[in-house]
Amino acid sequence: MNHKLHPHLNQLVRSATLAINERSAEMAADGQTIYHFGFGQSPFPVPDSIVSALQENAYRKNYLPVEGLFELREAVAAYHNDVDQIHIEPEGVLVSPGSKELIFTLQMAIKGSTLIPAPCWVSYVPQANLVQRDNQYIQTRFEDNWRLLPDQLDFAVKQTSGPHLLILNYPGNPDGGTYSAEELKALANVARKNNVLILSDEIYGRLYHKGEHVSIARFYPEGTIVSSSLSKWCAAGGWRLGHFAFPKELFWLKEALASITSDTYSCVAAPIQYAGLQAYNDKDTVGEYLFHCRRILSTIGNFCASTLLEAGVNIQSPSGAFYLFPDFESFRISLSEKGIHDSAAMCEQLLQDTRVVLLPGTAFGRPAEELNARIAYVNFDGGKALQTSREISMEQNLTMHDLGDNVINVKYGIEKLIDWLKE
Ligand code: PMP
Ligand code: GLU
Fold this sequence. Notes:
This protein has 15 helices and 12 strands. 42% of the residues lie in helices and 12% in strands.
């Protein structure tokens, strides 16, 4: 056979997140204890009422409308209106098998280039490359909490050919940080002035630890698509249900994406959409569940950050999601004595020496020579943690001590990392 890949696909590799998850699973299957901070998957169970809705709707076998079940689109729109205080109509919601699919389709569909503040989620740039779309990282700085600054956006717009799509993700993967309303306003002003389309990836919005996530769509409604999904806040990554919310001004774009998806995935699995309907409608269950998820994540994230900080690692305390993005620059000399000069070598050696799994900063678009990496602090039993948190009054603080043995793998993992750095 003389079949070949297109030349631009010759360098294809597996997404770093999915690859590390499979590698860790193989190591664990060999009986090795793994300190798995590599993969960003919610540790919590999906709430019972939502699992029941999936079971009860398993018999539904017909294709659903390409854009999604209308009742689900209404529920997602109502959620954006109530929780995010932005005006979204049901007709502006497009449902997909995970938000990843729609981010890819968007990058394929529109002209121009993508601007991506880095560190960023692993798949934005590979997706752009798959469709040979121009794209550019905007390197943010540790000192700025990895936030994109308005001047940086302005500068990047002037340096690249438009029209521009900015992908802004907050709370952020891999840094766990977010933007204040004032910071979002300032970015919105630059975007409006330069006609930048914003894809606001708010997949971790409901996992902002303080619970008052603000969307940039409040300040730039006409130019913002809000992306989210059941994967993180509802802990249902494997169910594959995501959605985009478009303002009226961008309905033309939603129509185009819906046409593309009608020729690619057709629609999201019917039972999953009915379960999604429950997820968006059962506000009491979800409110209580999210309170505990956030409290647990905040306790564990802050423990990891403060322990590392005390050990001399540069790190910010987390605001949301379940990630930290420490910088090990202060250990450069001792690391270079071990022959380690970049983040990939650092994570590989760490894994081999200690079985602590981190993903290197390069996977998130950072320059190879930097010594940063992502910690996904989800290596605990989410079901047990919820049970513990529910036994403790909502007014009280939840501590690592309360979480007990359940967080032992987190504690040992962080300890092992520190011992290795100090060896
Ligand atoms: N955006 C970010 C920032 C993510 O971390 C993920 C991770 N899965 C996605 C988008 C895609 O999620 P999904 O396709 O499961 O909705
Ligand atoms: N978002 C998760 C992560 O960053 C994993 C899933 C994915 O990348 O699609 O680890």
